[in-house]
Amino acid sequence: MFTGLTGIELVFFFLSLLIAMIVHEVMHGVVAYYLGDKTAAEMGRLTLNPFKHIDVATTLLLPLVLVLFGLPPIFAAKPVPFNPQNVNYDEYGVAMVGLAGPLSNFLLAAVGSVLIHLLAATINAELLNFLLIFVEVNVALMVFNMIPFPPLDGSRVLYAFAPESVRRVMERIEAMGFMVILLFIFVFFQFIAQLIGYVDNTILKFLLSI
User: Fold this and answer.
1) Tell me, what's the pLDDT at 151?
2) Cα separation of 21 and 109, whole Å?
3) Contact in structure between 78 and 26 (CB atoms under 8 Å)
4) What is the pTM of this model?
């Protein structure tokens, strides 16, 4: 989706990605806060300051390594911390915290698409291009994070409704930490890449055609 970007388009891409990741992480913390957990607020993470959300490993080194291996770059901000024990409604509250990030990206994409429909005939080509890239980035971030594989946000939703046997497997996977992210990207993602691309394109067509 983002191959072949050059010049100003790369600037648009990274700016869109920065906005999308920051809002995504902040909304995790905001929903956790209103569900009873103050961890993110106490650690100063309920802020739009990008330096509070950039992680050297996942925001900088991971995409660089993927590019070197000829793979699509995947970026991730520093996860906003929260304590599931403090969140109201047990695993369903945790699922709501998980959904907050992807939902915020969908809303950002929806706002971008509305602006495109309203302003397409009056704004210059570069601004229109920025809005298109902004929508694409937010849709891509939403869809990727909704994959139900720990520690992605979709796994929080799956965990809330999964039987105990599945939950135990998910807990063991998430306990592997950063290694499981690399395992997912280098091994499992290639098997679902086409499906993810199809979902991305379907949502984009919906947003840009309404």
Assistant:
1) 87
2) 13
3) no
4) 0.89
Q: What is the mean pLDDT of residues 155-182?
A: 89
99 or 77, which is more confident: 99
pLDDT at 3 over 60: no
If you average pLDDT over residues 110-133, what whole number do you get? 93
Q: What is the largest CA-CA distance in the chain?
A: 56
The DSSP-derived string for 39-54 is HHHHTT-SS--GGGT-
Q: Could you give the CA distance from residue 135 to residue 1 in angstroms, rounded to a whole number?
A: 12
Residue 128 CB partners (closer than 8 Å, separation 6+): 116, 119, 120
DSSP letters, 148-170, are SSTTSHHHHHHHHHS-HHHHHHH
Domain boundaries, the chain: 8-209
- Round to whole Å and give the CA distance between 187 and 173: 14
Rg (CA), the chain: 17
DSSP class of 132: H
In angstroms, the CA 85 to CA 23 distance is: 24
Given a contact cutoff of 8 angstroms between Cβ atoms, the answer to whether 39 and 86 are in contact is yes
- For the CA atoms of 186, 189, 193, 199, what is the dihedral angle to 10 degrees? -150
